[in-house]
Amino acid sequence: MKKTSNQLLVIFGASGDLTARKLVPSLFNLYLARQLPENFVVLGASRSDMTDKEFRNKVVLESKYLKPRLEDLKENYIQGFSDKFFYEDLGGAYDTDYSRLRKRVEDLNNKYKTEGNIIYYLSTPPTLYETIAKNLADAGLNTQNNGWKRLIVEKPFGYSLETAKALNTGLQKYFTEPQIYRIDHYLGKETVQNLLVTRFANTIFEPLWNRNYIHHVEITNAESVGVEKRGGYYDKSGALRDMFQNHLLQIVSLIVMEPPIGDQPEEIRNEKVKALKSLRIMTDAQELHDNTIRAQYMASTINGEKVKGYREEDGVDSDSTTETYAAIKFFVDNWRWKDVPFYVRTAKRMPTKVTEVVIHFKSPHHHIFQDSGINNKDNKLVIRIQPDEGILMKFGVKVPGQGFKVERANLDFYYSSLAQTHVMEAYERLLLDCMQGDATLYARADEVEAAWEFVDPILEYWKNGKDVRMYGYAAGVWGPENADELIDGIGYWRNPGSNLAEDPGYCVIC
Ligand SMILES: NC(=O)C1=CN([C@@H]2O[C@H](COP(=O)(O)OP(=O)(O)OC[C@H]3O[C@@H](n4cnc5c(N)ncnc54)[C@H](OP(=O)(O)O)[C@@H]3O)[C@@H](O)[C@H]2O)C=CC1
Ligand SMILES: O=C1O[C@H](COP(=O)(O)O)[C@@H](O)[C@H](O)[C@H]1O
């Protein structure tokens, strides 16, 4: 097990949703698993006026995200966790002199012996990231003379290629690239990491992982919820920025990448950057028209309950052109993937919450058995990222009886079968990695920029292109019907159920 040094975690934006909903519960899991270092304290910093006690109550003792879990624990144990939390009011603004913050950091460091090691977690609106980094540097809080300093940056990493570059350059003025940890919570998911293991710890997949055997790759990221309370943020973002540019292109990079020479962070990250740089950038209007689809959900009734349309959501413009559904077909220009289409879609208000990767293998070159030449019955490897995490291989078996009728059967593995193993939550895993100085599962500056290079022309076309279509779909269905037209040959997306174990084996279309 890697060593976690004593340290202080400073969270900017500590009064916000992310801190209470994700960060503190993840720290709590690490505390329960005894994975926090012996000397560890958290200093929340925000504009809100709060005492240490009020902060502890808000994020630990009275937090709705923790309360049910605290009930069975002994009081002194809970106290032990809660006592690690402190709060510093920044005096009304993030853009201020941090000398008082510095004094507080030094006092905590001396009292709790955190050895000068500090993680700064930026959990504020992104417009403040560079300001905070600058003020930390001005107060000498970035210096590594007396312990390491790391900076965790939350998404979004920019709004476009230009703004992402500006953010990277801005942060790199005050922190070096190895100090910067850009968090993408999809990389913290076990099943996303397992993509690497599936590919590079088995001999049976990698020889087939190329244009000679793979017909196409399909990735679906579906959420059943709408924009919920984040209409204001989402309307300025949209599905492509919110999910595709970051989480989905991270998944794509793990599928596309070449084998790294080892498992060291830079070895893996170098290959991911190469993969992202090999995505064919679409610039031609006709190409963008033919290969991209955007849509918005419309009012509907789901299970007897009326659901608002996107344009009626709080914080959303009544004539908004922001997409809640994006489907993109693209190619990867390298030796391995030449001419293999990738189909990737992401959307809100789908029939179910599911994220999966499907590798569709080619048909046998010569069909000798009855019914075996139909595309939808070819071999598939279904990698279920969430929920019901697992892997399922579809292969042909003989239907009992006369002749050689072929049907699909499933070979599968489910994470739920590892009942005794604690599967870490994404933020829990990523926080621990940063505490240990492991940046493998964090995005590097060039990685983020390569992803924006691919996405920027699509956004530009959707914004300024002529006659760009915006489809509608009723909340609760699998997007607009026209999206099927994107899938050549087969003509429809695989619309999965939430339960992989119930994925039909013997069936007509699966
Ligand atoms: N919430 C989530 O699930 C996710 C969030 N993120 C990202 O994490 C970051 C934090 O998210 P979240 O906690 O939801 O954000 P919040 O909107 O809750 O903001 C966090 C804190 O920042 C301060 N703040 C908010 N708006 C302003 C403003 N205009 N000017 C100055 N300070 C402001 C507030 O603290 P105070 O007023 O006390 O200073 C607030 O408590 C964001 O960058 C977001 O994009 C990423 C993925 C998921
Ligand atoms: O980053 C984001 O992710 C969530 C979906 O995350 P998941 O782990 O539940 O799949 C999404 O709802 C949100 O809009 C987006 O900002």
UniProtKB/TrEMBL annotation:
<dbReference type="InterPro" id="IPR001282">
    <property type="entry name" value="G6P_DH"/>
</dbReference>
<dbReference type="Pfam" id="PF00479">
    <property type="entry name" value="G6PD_N"/>
</dbReference>
<feature type="binding site">
    <location>
        <position position="47"/>
    </location>
    <ligand>
        <name>NADP(+)</name>
    </ligand>
</feature>
<keyword id="KW-0119">Carbohydrate metabolism</keyword>
<dbReference type="InterPro" id="IPR022675">
    <property type="entry name" value="G6P_DH_C"/>
</dbReference>
<protein>
    <recommendedName>
        <fullName>Glucose-6-phosphate 1-dehydrogenase</fullName>
        <ecNumber>1.1.1.49</ecNumber>
    </recommendedName>
</protein>
<keyword id="KW-0560">Oxidoreductase</keyword>
<dbReference type="Pfam" id="PF02781">
    <property type="entry name" value="G6PD_C"/>
</dbReference>
<feature type="domain" description="Glucose-6-phosphate dehydrogenase C-terminal">
    <location>
        <begin position="196"/>
        <end position="490"/>
    </location>
</feature>
<feature type="binding site">
    <location>
        <position position="348"/>
    </location>
    <ligand>
        <name>substrate</name>
    </ligand>
</feature>
<dbReference type="InterPro" id="IPR022674">
    <property type="entry name" value="G6P_DH_NAD-bd"/>
</dbReference>
<dbReference type="InterPro" id="IPR019796">
    <property type="entry name" value="G6P_DH_AS"/>
</dbReference>
<dbReference type="InterPro" id="IPR036291">
    <property type="entry name" value="NAD(P)-bd_dom_sf"/>
</dbReference>
<feature type="binding site">
    <location>
        <position position="189"/>
    </location>
    <ligand>
        <name>substrate</name>
    </ligand>
</feature>
<feature type="binding site">
    <location>
        <position position="353"/>
    </location>
    <ligand>
        <name>substrate</name>
    </ligand>
</feature>
<feature type="binding site">
    <location>
        <position position="242"/>
    </location>
    <ligand>
        <name>substrate</name>
    </ligand>
</feature>
<keyword id="KW-0521">NADP</keyword>
<feature type="binding site">
    <location>
        <position position="155"/>
    </location>
    <ligand>
        <name>NADP(+)</name>
    </ligand>
</feature>
<comment type="pathway">
    <text>Carbohydrate degradation; pentose phosphate pathway; D-ribulose 5-phosphate from D-glucose 6-phosphate (oxidative stage): step 1/3.</text>
</comment>
<feature type="binding site">
    <location>
        <position position="223"/>
    </location>
    <ligand>
        <name>substrate</name>
    </ligand>
</feature>
<feature type="domain" description="Glucose-6-phosphate dehydrogenase NAD-binding">
    <location>
        <begin position="10"/>
        <end position="194"/>
    </location>
</feature>
<keyword id="KW-0313">Glucose metabolism</keyword>
<feature type="binding site">
    <location>
        <position position="185"/>
    </location>
    <ligand>
        <name>substrate</name>
    </ligand>
</feature>
<comment type="similarity">
    <text>Belongs to the glucose-6-phosphate dehydrogenase family.</text>
</comment>
<feature type="active site" description="Proton acceptor">
    <location>
        <position position="247"/>
    </location>
</feature>
<comment type="function">
    <text>Catalyzes the oxidation of glucose 6-phosphate to 6-phosphogluconolactone.</text>
</comment>
